[in-house]
Each structure stands twice: as C-alpha cells, then as structure tokens.
Design a protein that fits this description.
There is one protein chain. By secondary structure, the protein is of the alpha/beta class. The chain has 2 domains: about 130 residues, Roll (Urease, subunit C, domain 1); about 300 residues, Metal-dependent hydrolases (TIM Barrel). Helices cover about 30% and strands about 20% of the residues. The protein has 14 helices and 20 strands. Strands 1, 2, 3, 4, 5, 16, 19 and 20 form an 8-stranded mixed β-sheet that branches. The chain has an 8-stranded parallel β-sheet with strand order 6-7-8-9-10-13-14-15, sandwiched between helices. Strand 11, helix 6 and strand 12 form a beta-alpha-beta unit. The radius of gyration is 22 Å and the shape is globular.
C-alpha cells in the first residue's frame, strides 16, 4: 500500500527501498531501517554505533533488518541518530498572521531544522485564550502540518493580564501549557490565581519575564551601547524582578513555572539558587543570546532587535555556565517571524523578534559543542527528553515502543546560512551569511521521512 501525503501532513519524502523490484504489498507500512549511525538517546543513556529499526511508526525492539520484507534503508554511517528534536518556543502566527508565517510554512521550517515536534505560542489573532481558537489551531495543524504541533493557551483573556482565561476549558481543548508569551502578567494576584489553576490541571506555566515599569520604552539592552546609539534601554533587572517573583509564587502555590528565553546573568543565578531549594522552576536559553551581544546593534539593524534584548558578554558567560551545570535545561528558538516590511523601518519602530527554526541546531552545535560547553548527550537532552518531560509529552526517546520521531545529524556538514532559501515565510534573521558546522540531514516523524537534505520536500 502506498503512503498518503494527507495521512501525515502535507509532505512525505520517500527513501529508496532495498529492493526496488519488490511488491509494495510486501513492505511494512511506516517502517524504516537506519544502518550504522551513532545512536545517542539521552533518555536511556545510550551512545553507540548501531542500527535502528522502525516498524509501523514505532521504534522496534529488534535492531535487525527483517528478512523477506522490503523496507526503506538509510545509511547513517558518519551521522548522529537522535530522538526527534523538540522546540518548545515557536510562534506560528496562524490564525491572523499569515503574511508572516502559517502552520504549514512554520512546520516546514521546523522539519528543515531537524525538529519533529514544536510548541506553538498563543499570541495569534485572535489570541488562543479560548477552546474555539485552540480547536482551530489543532485542526489546521492536522490538515497542514508536517511535524507534531502542540498548543499552548493564554494565561489571561486577550493576553491583557487582567482576567484569567478559562484554563479548565483550555486544558480540555488539548493545550499542554499556559503562557502569555510576548506579554507578561504584571498583576501578581492574577498570576497567583493562574498558578493555582495550573497546578490543579498539572499544566506547566511558561512566563515571558519583563517588568513593564522598569523596561518601559526600552528597545535594546540598557548599557554602554544603548548610550552610544542613543536608544532607550531595557535593563536586565526588568527580567530579574519577574524571575524572582515567579520563584516566590512557585514556592507559594506549588505550581511548575518555566522561565522563557533567559537573557540576564542575574536571572541565571536566581534560578540556580531556587533549584537548590527544589523550587519547581525551569528555564530555557536561545541561540541568539549565547551567540551575540548588544554590540551587534552598532549598525541599527532591526534583525538584531529581540525581546528580551541581546545583552552583554557577562550575561552571555552566565548563560553558558547555566547550560553547563544544567541550571538551564532547555534549548529553544523563540522563532518569531515578521514580514520584511515590518522590519524595514527605524529601529525604535520595528517589532521585536527573529526567526530561528532553521538555524538553531547549527548555532547550538557551533557554540556549545565546538565551544566545549556541552557534550552531545547533554546538548541533545536539552532538545529532546528534557522538553518532553517538562511538557509531559510521549516523545524525546528512542526506547523500544516509542513513536519513531527521529532526527539524523551530520556533525561535519558545514553550510552557509542563506535566508532567501528559508522555508519560513519570513527572513528576519541576524545570522544570514554565517558559516555553521553541522545540520540535520533527515527529519522523521512516525516513521515517515518528512524532510531530507538530499530531497527536501520534493517527491
């Protein structure tokens, strides 16, 4: 039987079967044999050269290729075979922002970056603050996505920080976390009540940490370069104040809080100290905050404008230390697409945000592996099993019986970033022209090769 494109999203890229003359009826559906790769599964501690068998969309107990049955084979010699990568911080813009990104284009970008699962933020238009919008997003993902799309719901109605969203209904609609990302709940009492409900439904709460009074009007980090460039500053303490608040609220309520896109070295210290007290706090870091500093804004390029902003070298060093000691257990992109006409304005008027799905893996390898901050197991844990456990997803492992979401990585495939070739509808990246040392070669979802470096999205 042939595999339907509709069955697993829009895109399916077949690999060559071992015996092209074999009858289709003799093939195992949704099956695959991956030969001779370096299998790294942080969830089980596995790191060895070996084979991996996929049967009917799941990881098989056996590692031997079936006899007398033709299934596709991938020669993975020289490649890393990892659980499918998970990005738990992605803006897909649909509904309401189709000129920037859609679920179809965003998931294509994810697949091209090696990601098999992504977590969609709720700052759409309308915001995902009710079950109807969640149902729409899930239906669009079912119809058009080529990777797994998990949804978040808003903490507050309209993301205004004033009235709680119907958290129970959002949970019933299928969300896996709460957030007002792009906005921060300023009212501490509202945030406390939201956390009470989140704990009731065992939902992780993701928070964009920004005190609006302290950051008011800021468009870049407050420091030497904001003074030189004459731009309003966004001080790191505006992040630190909310991180500290969230730590205290987590202690009070017992709710799980995840600090999004850490940028401040002092916030890293606060999270580290809270974890020593077993506070239910977690944190993530983005490639741009560990790759760049505020000095990069010297030419007023709006592709370097993001929220929270690029900070100083001392903050960058603190983030790297936090990644090394596992204070920061998640790596993600904060993929935030914007149309070119939105960014092609004066710096102060441009929206915050950059795209990241197609470059983040290469950047993390360049900075963290080549920089000897992390080994491969630690890096992949922050992109697979750690986000899966935080979000309580049945993903992130190559254990027998697990869904066959797999990413193959060539650690020696250097390439040059060319934003004009992105699958994302937007091009707002500060990394155009960068040379990166490695990239994904195959993205496999439920046993289907959704994307490969050789065939990309063509049949």
């Amino acid at each position: 039987m042939s595999l339907s494109k509709k069955q697993f999203g829009l895109f399916y890229v077949p690999v060559t079967p071992t015996s092209p003359s074999s009858s289709l009826s003799s093939r195992l559906p949704n099956s695959l044999f991956i030969r001779g790769g370096r299998i790294i599964d942080p969830a089980s501690g596995r790191d060895e050269i070996g084979d991996l068998l996929v049967e009917d969309g799941h990881i098989a107990e056996s590692t031997a290729k079936p006899k007398d049955i033709a299934i596709p084979v991938i020669d993975a010699r020289g490649l890393i075979v990892a659980p499918g990568l998970i990005d738990m911080h992605v803006h897909l813009r649909e509904p309401g922002g189709g000129q920037k990104e859609t679920i179809a284009s965003g998931t294509r970008a994810a697949a091209a970056g090696g990601f098999t699962s992504i977590l969609a933020m709720p700052n759409t238009n309308p915001p995902a603050d009710g079950p109807n919008t969640i149902a729409l997003m899930r239906q669009r993902a079912l119809e058009t996505a080529c990777v797994n799309v998990f949804t978040t719901g808003c903490i507050t109605v309209g993301m205004k920080g004033e009235e709680l969203a119907p958290i129970g209904s959002l949970h019933k609609a299928g969300i896996v976390a709460l957030t007002d990302d792009g906005h921060c709940v300023q009212n501490n009492e509202v945030m406390r009540r939201a956390l009470d409900y989140a704990r009731m439904f065992d939902l992780l709460t993701l928070d964009h940490c920004q005190d609006y009074n302290l950051s008011a009007g800021g468009v870049m980090h407050e420091g030497y370069w904001s003074t030189v460039l004459g731009l309003p500053g966004w001080p790191r303490i505006a992040e630190d104040m909310i991180v500290a608040r969230n730590i205290l609220l987590s202690e009070l309520t017992g709710a799980r809080i995840h600090v999004q896109h850490l940028s401040s070295g002092d916030s890293v210290r606060l999270v580290r100290e809270a974890k020593k007290r077993n506070v239910k706090i977690s944190a993530e870091a983005m490639p741009h905050h560990i790759a760049l500093t505020d000095a990069a804004l010297e030419k007023y390029d709006t592709n370097f404008k993001m929220n929270p902003p690029l900070r100083e070298r001392i903050d960058q060093e603190a983030l790297l230390a936090g990644l090394a000691d596992d204070t920061i257990e998640i790596l993600a992109s904060d993929h935030a697409p914007h149309a070119s006409y939105e960014k092609e304005v004066e710096f102060a008027d441009a929206p915050f945000g950059i795209v990241g799905l197609e470059t983040e893996l290469g950047l993390f390898i360049k900075i963290l592996i080549e920089g000897r901050v992390l080994d491969w197991t630690s890096l992949l844990a922050k992109l697979t099993i750690n986000p899966a456990r935080l979000l309580k997803l049945d993903r992130g492992t190559l254990a027998p019986g697990a869904a066959a979401d797999i990413t193959l990585i060539d650690p020696k495939h250097s390439w040059k970033v060319d934003a004009s070739k992105f699958y994302s509808l937007s091009r707002n990246t500060p990394f155009n022209g960068w040379e990166l040392p490695a990239r994904a070669t195959h993205t496999i979802v439920a046993g289907h090769v959704i994307w490969s470096l050789d065939k990309e999205f063509g049949d």
